[in-house]
Amino acid sequence: MQQPHPRFSVLSGSSLSSTEHLSPTASSTRFSLPSATSINTALGTPKPGPRPNIYDRNLNKTRTSEVSASAFAFLFSEVVQYTQKRVSGINDLERRLNTLGYRAGTRVLELMVWRAESSSKAPKREIRFLPALMSIHTQVWRAVFGRPADAIEKSVENEDEYMVIDNDPPIERHISVPKDMNQLSCSSFTAGIVEAVLDGLGLPARVTAHHTPTQQFPSRTTILIKLDKSVLEREEILK
After folding, report:
1. CA diameter of the chain
2. Which residues pair with 225 in a beta bridge?
């Protein structure tokens, strides 16, 4: 009779009969362990309580909490790689990143409005574009990236174009773009956030991201805001 391979043998070769191998009494005696209750009692380990639910946390108390930069960089890198495998070109990739950023932006605006209304006796909603743009430059950037943007500029050629400048976008610090894709701007995700905030405030616009590197800031990025015609008409009436 062929002997079982030693790596698949449950018990070492011994004088046990086949009946003893299958006997629950023999196996339980040979491998008996104390119950979980007796172990906890012996060690004096308290029974773990239920873990806190993230939905029960106070949103105002998490206002100053920070997310690990390395965890965020890893997650965003995976998002970019996942999206890159399912697009046909750079424009399509930027469009999808913009769409993902738009979804995040709607939630950022919702959270900021909720916090403003819960902490202020007379909450104010911006209906003019320039105060809203200043809020994006300062409050939205601080809520998402932990610091305000570096500058705001107005186009001298087109009255419907404004720019938010970020000299060192945190979203691109750990992303290496191949030379054949040097036109790609992963800050399209940030542009989507800005577009969602403007839409939510009733200031529709088309927002895109563009690399504008300098010798001092090689990662400098410009978020270009092109306002809808209706916004300009309303601004003219409110003057």
Report:
1. 100
2. 162, 207
Phi, psi angle pair for 154, to nearest 5°: -115, 140
Three-class secondary structure of residue 107 per DSSP = helix
- Classified as helix, coil or strand, 189 is helix
pLDDT of the chain along its 239 residues, tens only? 555 544 344 444 444 444 444 444 444 444 444 454 444 444 556 666 677 676 676 666 655 566 788 888 889 989 998 998 999 889 999 999 999 999 999 999 998 888 887 777 777 788 899 999 999 999 999 989 989 999 999 999 999 999 999 999 988 888 888 887 888 899 999 999 999 999 999 999 999 999 999 999 989 999 999 999 999 999 999 88
Q: How far is CA 167 from CA 46, 67, 190, in A?
A: 52, 21, 14
Angle, vertex CA 185, rays to CA 180 and CA 188, nearest 5: 145
Q: Are strands 221-227 and 161-166 parallel, antiparallel or unpaired?
A: antiparallel
Q: Which two tokens stand for residue 6?
A: 């030693």
Query: How far, in whole angstroms, is CA 201 from its chain's centroid?
Result: 22
What are the strands, taking DSSP E only, across 11-160? Answer: 151-154
DSSP, res 138:
I
Q: What pTM value is reported for the model?
A: 0.74
